[in-house]
Amino acid sequence: MGNDTKQIELLSVRQDGGHTVANVFVPDGQLVHFEKYVTDYLQEKKNKNGDALDHKALLNTIYAIRAAELRALWTDDPTLLPADQSEAFWWEVWLPVRGKHAEIREEVVSDFRKLAAATGCKISESRADFPERVVVLMYGSERQFSHSVIALNCVAELRRAKETAEFFDSMAVEDQQGWQDDLLARAVFSGDIENAPRICLLDSGVNRAHPLIAPVIQSSGLYTVNHAWGVDDQANHGTGMVGIATYGDLSNALASSLPIRISHLIESVKLVENHGANPGGSELHASLFADAVSQPEVTAPNHPRVFSSTVTSADYRDRGRPSSWSAMVDRLASDADNNGAFPRLFVQSAGNMFDQNAWLTYPAGLSTNLIHDPGQAWNSLTVGAYTTKVGISETDHHNCATIAPAGGPSPMTSSSATWDKAWPLKPDVVFEGGNAAQDELGAVVLPSLSLLTTHNNSQERFFTTTNATSSASALCARMAAQLMVAYPTLLPETIRALIVHSAEWTEAMLQMYLPVQGCTTKAAYVNLVRHCGWGAPDMERALWSAGNSLTLIVEDSIHPYHKDGGAIKSGDMNLHILPWPKDELEALGNMQVEMRVTLSYFIEPNPSSRGSASKYHYASHRLRFDVRRPLESLDDFVARINAAATQDENGAHADPQDPSWRLGENQRSKGSLHQDIWTGTAADLASRAQLAVYPAAGWWRTRPKLERYNFPARYSLLISIRTPETETDLYNAIAQQIAMPITSVV
User: Fold this and answer.
1) Which of 390, 389, 355 lies closest to 370, judged by CA?
2) Percentage of the residues of the chain whose pLDDT score is greater than 70
3) Rounded to an integer, what distance in angstroms lies between the CA atom of residue 280 and that of residue 277?
């Protein structure tokens, strides 16, 4: 509930048992307006048309109206608020900003600092700014903070500050040999220092002296968010990520005798110290993350780069709900501060499970280990882990059996299996993350089931092992950089889409999460994606098209909303004409073919508590896609899309007439990256030659006072078709049609 004219604002919503508790800000002098609702209800007043003014829908749900209490403002897990009210800890304080001017924002922060200081609480210098919120950290006890009713009235919501997960080092080490000399002799490094894409690793720092690392990272490419920490790697983690991001799994690179070309460079920002432990210090994670991103951009602003972070919180209590940290990732990716002029690609590890008892329940344990903050960020490419490593070479562990089958999810990965259905389908993809083994004594990680990489102290040994979603995300960043080399003009949204579009589920994934073939439901496919993403990407599929498999790429923009009088309404629809070779497809008749569609765009976040209650208020805008159906005229298709674009934001978009999509419209349109796969006959596909991209609700539309409704939204659209091997060459047939530009009709 909110009333902009009276400045009455809904601050936060939380569930308390069977009740919904809402915190409402009522300015001085406006309480009478709020009380008028109650008066009208009691007196059964009616308007001039005889309609009731009793506000039953609202007031019948209200159990009590009272002044704000500290615990009423707590929107985190109730068990995280200490029972001992005198226990001091770090709080995450969300302050409401009621106005768009910078001076108002500064006044809000300044006033709160003074009020909180009067209670003896300590406020962090860093902060995270969002359209209607400022987030700061505060150290103190509940008893201290509760003494100031005025300070409480400045707060929209309270949460507990996060702890980052420890980095995982000290893995078992294989015997070290002088293989690096042979690898260096075969390696060809980029000589284009100015234009080569960078992988900027946000990690524990790097020790550049390693012979395999020195050629890809310049001394000027080392940064830190805390100068007292330095830039070197004491945790033996960041240096390992450089090895993976440069060479992939070193065990493969070293075993080969072929030349290896390295066309990208590496940058490093030390985001965490030592093992990655950051126990809720006075620096907000969102603020540190933003600082880490800004440093290389200030020094080298014109270099193309992908940011890769393996730093996550120690817990997964957000369960898909946006946090200040994940919202900052979304904000930086969309480049909200510059109205989207310079978007960024973020590769984010999903977070790990190193509970060996949970490994023994595999795969059931994967459903309860949820993606860690900030992996729920809509705009990030969130990476989970799978494994192909099932061979155990250690003689003293010959009685062990691998936990995951070849091609199955890694025991160490995380999922979004039990997130609320409103939140994005994560992870997006999975890369190699290693396996674990078990015997009668329990579970263990072995070097032979891990990835090989560079050690942080090359004076002692050259190689060490790594695993889990850290190594998986480094592999993903490497693929992103390779695609940036191959396609230097593509947008970050397109690179993200290409990686996901090239992914395939393994047989092990399909057997694990899908029922018997022929009985698979859309819900089963959603469950598969929430555990395994869209599968394991493949560089060859991302780079090349063949005679029976090809991909079309469209980069375009749309104005999702416009102002009509005093109302903000849905705006444009883009209609893309697909150059399907109708004659060739119809000639294939009933042959089963596959069409895959990927829509990628970046949203601007608004992580007020509305975002914790509804996806429709977190994202600046949402886009959807749909394809013309057989026997549907173009006019009917356009009319159907227009009706869908104007439907109520909370309405389900049922699609009973087009059941051949794996996920369907209701399931695929979550987050800011949508993918679906259609399967049918070639003749059926021949009539599906139009695809529409159209808007759905977002806060650019629902928050008109922020004046963002006129902004354009950029997107990337990938469409591919795949047929069995035939003599029909679809590639050349389509190439002839697209010799003329593909038109996009608005």
Assistant:
1) 355
2) 81
3) 9
Indicate whether 484 and 558 sit together in one domain: no
Instruction: Look at residue 349 and give its three-state secondary structure.
Output: strand
Point out the domain boundary residue: 134, 164, 194: 164
188 shares its domain with 115 = no
Dmax of the chain from CA atoms?
A: 90
Burial label for 323, CB within 10 Å (0-12, 13-18, 19+), is buried
Average per-residue pLDDT in the chain? 83
**pLDDT at residue 44, rounded to an integer:** 59
Alpha carbon distance 246, 260 (integer Å): 10
Helix (H, G, I), strand (E, B) or coil at 31: helix
User: Which pLDDT does position 167 carry in this prediction?
Assistant: 25
- Residue that finishes a domain, picked among 105, 135, 164: 164
Distance CA 669, CA 415 (A): 18
Residue 68 has pLDDT above 70, yes or no: no
- Contact predicate 702/619, CB 8 Å: no
Residue 173 falls within a domain, yes or no?
no
SS3 assignment, position 243: helix
- The verdict on 70 and 193 lying in the same domain is no
Q: What is the pLDDT of residues 627-677, one digit of tens each?
A: 999 888 899 999 998 888 776 444 445 445 678 899 998 899 999 999 999
pLDDT at residue 174 is higher than 50:
no
The tokens of 514 are what? 């899908």
> Can you tell me the distance from the alpha carbon of 481 to that of 197, in angstroms, rounded to the nearest whole number?
6
pLDDT in tens, 114-128: 888 888 988 877 777
The type of residue at 455 is H
Going by the DSSP 8-state scheme, the letter that residue 592 receives in this structure is E
Give me the mean pLDDT over the 208-236 stretch: 94
Q: Exposed/middle/buried for 692, CB within 10 Å: 0-12, 13-18, 19+?
A: buried
Q: Which domain holds residue 436?
A: 183-513
What is the identity of the amino acid at 181?
D
Report the domain count for the chain: 3
pLDDT at 111 (0 to 100):
87
For the entire predicted model, the pTM comes to 0.85
SS3 72: helix
Residue reference for tokens 């069977």: 18
Residues 140 and 207 in one domain: no
Residue 499 shares a structural domain with residue 555: no
Cα 547 to Cα 234, 594, 685, 718, 722, distances in angstroms? 50, 14, 17, 18, 9
Let me know: does 638 contact 746? Beta carbons within 8 Å: no
What would the 3-class secondary structure string for 664-692 be?
A: CHHHHCCCCEEEEEEEEEHHHHHCCCEEE
- Please indicate, yes or no, whether residues 155 and 191 belong to a single structural domain of this protein: no
Would you state the structure tokens that stand for residue 13, as one six-digit string?
């919503």
What CA–CA distance (Å, rounded) separates 127 from 138? 11
- In three-state secondary structure terms, 428 is coil
Q: How far apart are CA 601 and CA 330, in angstroms?
A: 11
Which pLDDT value is given to residue 70? 77
Q: How confident is the model at residue 426 (pLDDT cuts 50, 70, 90)?
A: very high
Choose among 383, 192, 392, 223: nearest CA to 304: 192
Residue 26 has pLDDT above 70, yes or no: no
Report the 3 state secondary structure along 487-519: CCCCCHHHHHHHHHHCCECCHHHHHHHCCCCCC
Q: Let me know if residue 112 belongs to a domain.
A: yes
Q: Could you tell me which of 572, 571, 672, 569 has the C-alpha nearest to residue 618?
A: 672
CB-based contact 572:560 (threshold 8 Å): yes
What residues does 729 pair with on adjacent strands?
A: none
Q: What is the residue whose two structure tokens read 């439907």? A: 647
Strand partners, 570: 561
Structural contact between residues 499 and 480, judged by C-beta atoms closer than 8 angstroms: yes
- The pLDDT of residue 277 is 43
Do residue 118 and residue 205 come from a single domain? no
Say how far apart CA 613 and CA 156 lie, in whole Å.
14
